[in-house]
Amino acid sequence: MKRILVAVLTSFLALTLLVGAHGGRVYSRFKPFEAEAKAASGGIFVAGRFHCSGTEIGKTQDGNGIFLTARHCVADSQTNELNKNFTVSFSENEGGPYYGARPLALSLTDDLALLELKNGASIPEVKIKDERRLKTGEPIFNISFPLGAGKIEFNGEYL
User: Which fold has domain 2-157?
Assistant: First the structure.
């Protein structure tokens, strides 16, 4: 599990930090991947309220989903106390269905965490890619739930 978390850390940080909005510009060569990524991006809810977002990146051997998110979405940054009663929704409007979630792995050095989603194996997954292969100017995108505004896609270029 530690190898999975380490492999995911660098890619997630690079793609998240390097995305910029470009006025709705559409990159046709990534269309199939964008649809898959949009379906795999979900919102985390704690006590029924929107809390954070992340992306399904894999499956467990027993048929659950593996969901990548930020560590601050899972644990208090000061006390390391874990949040309780997580659920995740992949709908456009955060309306469900909801999947029960539990922390699977937390990074103590980076703002990254993995959640296990009960019965989340039917959700599409995004394969993590090595950002070192990207070249300046190549199209990149991010799909997230900024400030609970619903699922939004941002397009940009790798810097």
Answer: Thrombin, subunit H (2.40.10)
